[in-house]
Amino acid sequence: MSAIVHDPIGVIHLIAAVVALVAGTSVLFMRKGTMRHRQVGYAYVASMVVMLVTAFMIYRLFDGWGVFHYAAVISTVTLVGGMVPVFRRKSPKWVVSHFAFMYWSVFGLYAAFASEIITRIPGFQFFHLVGWATGGVMLAGGVIWSFNKKKWHTQFVRERVKPRKPLFGR
Predict the structure, then answer these.
(1) What pTM did the predictor assign?
(2) Vertex 4, ends 135 and 136: CA angle to 5°?
(3) Helix (H) or strand (E) holding 6
(4) Concatenated DSSP letters for 23-91?
(5) Contacts of residue 152, Cβ cutoff 8 Å, sequence gap at least 6
(6) What is the pLDDT of residue 161?
(7) Cα 99 to the chain's mean position, in Å?
(8) Are 54 and 16 in contact (CB under 8 A)?
(9) Average pLDDT of 43-50?
(10) With the C-alpha atoms ordered 105, 143, 14, 59, is the resulting torsion angle positive or negative?
């Protein structure tokens, strides 16, 4: 384990990442809008927040800001982008924005996981492996998205006849 994780922050980061992978994958496959979906979804968000905070505390790989920190910024944007519609709920279509951002948040996590695993293969250039892993996962996510986007959009808008009351604010 010491070769994979080098300090307590790394351990917290790893545990949060595993919880996020399990919760994020579960949410993608479960029925949307249920209490279970919300509970597992909030577990995903909480674990992602912990993982992202710890990601910004890890500097061993590049002795400073590195490529994974940029990925963490993008991941933060998709996570926030997925949760803002949940808290605002301004229109019946809030769920479409929520789903789109959260879908890409989970696929970004898959890309980070693939990059982490594949860069441990000896004999290859680090950035080539990160690029191929990230590109491959995001390409797969894009293909799945393009085949299902219209169906999902119709399904989510139809299931949300009227906007729900916002959780915070007006």
Answers:
(1) 0.79
(2) 10
(3) none
(4) HHHHHHHSPTTSHHHHHHHHHHHHHHHHHHHHHTT--TTTTSS-HHHHHHHHHHHHHHHHHHHHHH--S
(5) 99
(6) 43
(7) 11
(8) yes
(9) 97
(10) negative
